[in-house]
């Protein structure tokens, strides 16, 4: 055999992190809470509870490393299909998380934002989220952006409907709808130039997008890791960043120093 198949995900065991090339925006699909719990002989919700503690650890690690925006997929528009007790538990998590963690978010200058259909959440979940947003609004460091009751296709539909309404109202020409218009109509618009993640991490060995940030991930690097979310440590997170740094991002172009360029 002359050619060896390239592994899907390059490993990076002996390399160290380059602190000058930290991805600005990291998005994470936090998968595997249920499987982790099952492995431990615990109910599924115990996986979500442990997952919440890991959110704290990774938020702190990302902020310390200089990540500017961290988006976490906490609840999708499809997750309502889960058993009522699990949905109820997941709806209580933001309250528990912010009750215990807002002081530390403030110590670390981390600002909370939320994207998703928040008005469809239970009233106390909405209150917890809005309180955390207000209590951290003055912070200027990393943005901790929770995707809560979020779906990528729904987000695009809502954004396009808003643009269509502007066309009907005569405020916009159909021909003026371009990438910038669509970007500005999505739920990541408040992130400004940080709207598009540089790196997507998905835990638990699954390699799919599950309706997450479909527009914004167009040029992101994907890193899939084997650990279930509740087993992710800051060292595992750092390893994913090292894997990202091994990638060659070209955004559809060619390498700047490519000697073949004529
Ligand atoms: C996917 O694992 C995980 C979720 C649907 C929920 C993610 C939520 C957290 C990690 C906690 C969120 C914390 C805050 C602060 C809101 P799964 O249940 O699909 O796992 P499985 O695929 O193994 O069943």
UniProtKB/TrEMBL annotation:
Q: Which domain of life is it from?
A: Bacteria
Instruction: Determine if Flavoprotein is one of this entry's keywords.
Output: no
Q: What Gene Ontology cellular component terms go with this record? A: cytosol
Pfam families to which the protein is assigned, alphabetical: Prenyltransf (PF01255)
**What's its top-level EC category?**
transferase
One biological process term in Gene Ontology: polyprenol biosynthetic process
Catalytic residues (UniProt): 31, 79 (proton acceptor)
Q: Cofactor stoichiometry and binding?
A: Binds 2 magnesium ions per subunit.
What EC number is given for this enzyme? 2.5.1.-
Any GO MF annotation of the entry: ditrans,polycis-undecaprenyl-diphosphate synthase [(2E,6E)-farnesyl-diphosphate specific] activity
Q: Could you say which cofactors this protein requires?
A: Mg(2+)
Q: Where does substrate bind?
A: 32-36, 44, 48, 76-78, 80, 82, 202, 208-210
Signal sequence segment? none
Entry keyword set: Magnesium, Metal-binding, Transferase
Binding residues for Mg(2+), per the UniProt record? 31, 221
Q: Describe its assembly.
A: Homodimer.
What is this protein for, i.e. what is its function?
Catalyzes the condensation of isopentenyl diphosphate (IPP) with allylic pyrophosphates generating different type of terpenoids.
Which protein family is named in the record? Belongs to the UPP synthase family.
State what protein this is by name: Isoprenyl transferase
């Amino acid at each position: 055999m002359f050619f060896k198949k390239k592994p899907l995900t390059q490993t990076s065991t002996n390399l160290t992190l380059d602190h000058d090339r930290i991805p600005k925006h990291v998005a994470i699909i936090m998968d595997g809470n249920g499987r982790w719990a099952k492995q431990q002989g615990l109910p599924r919700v115990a996986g979500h509870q442990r997952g919440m503690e890991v959110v704290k650890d990774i938020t702190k690690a990302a902020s310390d490393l200089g990540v500017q925006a961290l988006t976490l997929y906490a609840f999708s528009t499809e997750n309502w299909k889960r058993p009522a007790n699990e949905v109820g538990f997941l709806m209580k998590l933001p309250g528990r998380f912010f009750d215990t963690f807002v002081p530390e978010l403030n110590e670390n200058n981390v600002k909370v934002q939320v994207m998703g259909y928040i008005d469809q959440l239970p009233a106390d979940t909405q209150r917890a989220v809005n309180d955390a947003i207000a209590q951290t609004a003055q912070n200027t460091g990393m943005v901790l952006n929770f995707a809560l009751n979020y779906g990528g296709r729904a987000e695009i539909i809502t954004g396009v409907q808003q643009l269509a309404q502007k066309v009907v109202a005569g405020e916009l020409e159909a021909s003026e709808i371009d990438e910038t218009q669509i970007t500005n109509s999505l739920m990541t618009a408040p992130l400004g130039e940080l709207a598009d993640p540089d790196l997507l991490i998905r835990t638990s060995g699954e390699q799919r997008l599950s309706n997450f940030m479909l527009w914004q991930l167009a040029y992101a690097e994907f890193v899939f890791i084997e650990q279930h979310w509740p087993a992710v440590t800051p060292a595992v997170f750092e390893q994913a960043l090292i894997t990202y740094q091994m990638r060659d991002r070209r955004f559809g172009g060619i390498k700047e120093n490519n000697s073949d360029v004529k």
